Amino acid sequence: MQQKTITVVIEPDGSSSVDLSGFAGQGCEKTLKEFQGTDQPKHLRRKSEFYGAARQDTDRRMQNKS
Amino acid sequence: MSAYGEFETIMCEERFLVEGLTTLGYRPEVNSQGAALFGYHGDERRETAHVIIRRSQLDSASNDIGFARGADGRYRAVLSEYDRSIGYDDRWIGKVQQQYKERQTMAVAKSKGYIFRGKETVQTPSGPQVRLQFVAR
Fold first, then answer.
1. Nearest-CA residue of chain B relative to A56?
2. Between chains, do B10 and A38 touch, taking CB under 8 Å as contact?
3. pLDDT tens per residue across span A38-54
4. Whole-angstrom Cα distance, residue B127 to residue B16?
5. C-alpha gyration radius of chain A
């Protein structure tokens, strides 16, 4: 299982970015919110892993149904 | 799911602001009700602030620098034009915000149970960039 890593980069102007890797499901949203805190979002995006994980979840659910 | 987000730092928590200023070498004064700022002549100015760096810690001709908490809970710097012109400008505020954000991030990570894996400081043309890494349990 891939390790869940969080990388926070804080720029000299005080702005920051949070990069999450290895997360699956709703835990990702929760973790991003936790590190965002009261900060104002400037840009948010789901990485390709998200779509892979979501597709795998869907595939798994379909297999379970059949 | 994995994600990426970019954020503007909003300073809302007094303790991280105070810790950040202390790390930068200041001895901030905290006044929960807000206190008057003084000018370089010792004159009381009309501005008040909740976290204050007194002018004795700054340049000899400086005024007090304050951080006033607004109705939205956000701390904003109160700086005179003179102090901005001698280096207490947006770049300096960025340094304060960077310190604030680092402390806030470490506190969040600790309280939520993330494991700290390390800090790296990378020099960039606009100043030091701080990278913090954590893993989830």
1. B1
2. yes
3. 999 999 988 766 555 54
4. 21
5. 15
